[in-house]
Design a protein that fits this description.
With 369 residues, this protein is of the alpha+beta class. It contains seven helices and 18 strands. Helices cover 18% and strands 30% of the residues.
């Protein structure tokens, strides 16, 4: 096997990266977007890219068959790029779930580095919260105290459209976990996963990501985080299933005038497109104000309930649909109309995002929502 060696100084993590290196097509060199893996003893055992989730670890934490061709040398330590094949859901996710009902004596059943889950509430059957156990403290009286690292929501936030500033990965000590759930589950992984992705690496990963923001229900949720800490694979069974369901829901809501957009290059300034925004807003209409195929992003103008007319940059993620309709206006005129002040208040029945977008393109407001 041919190894490419990059010698990187530790200032890669204390200032700007001292060298640029490409990994899995990602050219991230922003120091804040690399996560350092530090053990309880203060030893550096690896790091990861917060953009593409590539990982480099020392010899002790990756088997020879999973060492990629890229290798870094930091302060005399060799760090290998982990290169594991994606073998599907069965090899990534837990192989069994051990139910725990005696929540007063957790120290007898769970330990630091475990992945646990529990149902969020009776109102969300089948939707589970996931966390990594950092420590469990046995108490002479009362329930055992457990410290978790997990995505946590701030006051007033909602799962479907939680503002990034109110949601982050944090460390939380729970005095009595019975207040959160009546039953919790220890998520147990295969022997191969346990032998290679040790508890030391699991905890180093979890600690490294504390403070991360940007929660997304189907792309960056609590299960993504817990599974990544245990396996190095940033995946969520709930997220993948939800994405499949959302795609089907959006397809079922397609109007005969919609056409599927398979590639960002098919979009033009002034187009009216429909994209998924959240579970409570699966079909959002917007006007395309700019297209950047190099970054895979589009600038859009849309009408929202909370903020009125907003202009923002969004990642191009399918399913995306373009509303096919004749417009008497040029593309520049459509954009100008979209940027004009709106006198109407948002009303889901009489003036919503669809009404706004159609008025920008056609000067007509449909009679139906």
């Amino acid at each position: 096997m041919c190894f490419h060696l990059f010698v990187v100084k530790m200032d890669m993590f204390s200032s700007s990266p001292s060298t640029s290196f490409n990994h899995r097509g990602c050219d991230n060199t922003t120091r804040e977007r690399f996560k350092r893996y530090i053990t309880r003893d203060g030893a550096l055992i690896g790091f990861s890219c917060a953009v593409c989730y590539s990982e480099w670890v020392t010899d002790d934490f990756v088997s020879p068959e999973h060492r990629g061709p890229e290798m870094l040398k930091i302060d005399g330590k060799r760090l290998h790029l982990i290169d594991k094949p994606d073998e599907g859901r069965q090899s990534t996710f837990p192989t069994q779930w051990t139910s725990i009902r005696d929540l007063d004596n957790l120290a007898q059943i769970i330990t630091a580095g475990d992945h646990i889950s529990y149902q969020l509430s009776a109102l969300t059957p089948g939707l589970s919260h996931h966390a990594i156990v950092k420590s469990v403290k046995r108490r002479a009286s009362g329930p055992d105290k457990v410290t978790l690292v997990h995505w946590q929501f701030g006051q007033g936030s909602r799962m479907a459209e939680a503002p990034p500033s109110l949601v982050s990965i944090l460390e939380e000590t729970v005095d009595d976990i019975k207040k959160n759930a009546s039953v919790i589950y220890r998520c147990d992984y295969s022997d191969d996963t346990v032998s290679e992705d040790s508890r030391v690496l699991t905890l180093a990963r979890a600690n490294a990501w504390i403070g991360e923001t940007g929660y997304k229900l189907t792309q960056k949720n609590c299960e993504h985080f817990a599974v990544f800490c245990k396996t190095g694979q940033h995946r969520s069974f709930q997220g993948e299933v939800a994405t499949d369901v959302v795609s089907e829901v959006v397809r079922c809501m397609i109007n005969y005038t919609d056409e599927s957009v398979e590639d960002i290059s098919s979009l033009s300034i002034g187009d009216q497109v429909v994209m998924y925004m959240s579970l409570i807003h699966p079909r959002c209409h917007m006007i395309v104000a700019g297209v950047d195929a190099d970054t895979g992003t589009i600038n859009v103008i849309r009408f929202t309930f909370a903020r009125g007319v907003v202009e923002e940059k969004l990642k191009f993620r399918k399913p995306v649909y373009k509303v096919v309709s004749d417009s008497p206006f040029s593309s520049s005129e459509v954009i100008s109309r979209a940027r004009e002040p709106v006198r109407e208040l948002y009303n889901i029945f009489s003036f919503n995002c669809k009404h706004f977008a159609l008025r920008c393109r056609t000067d007509q407001i449909p009679s139906t929502p």
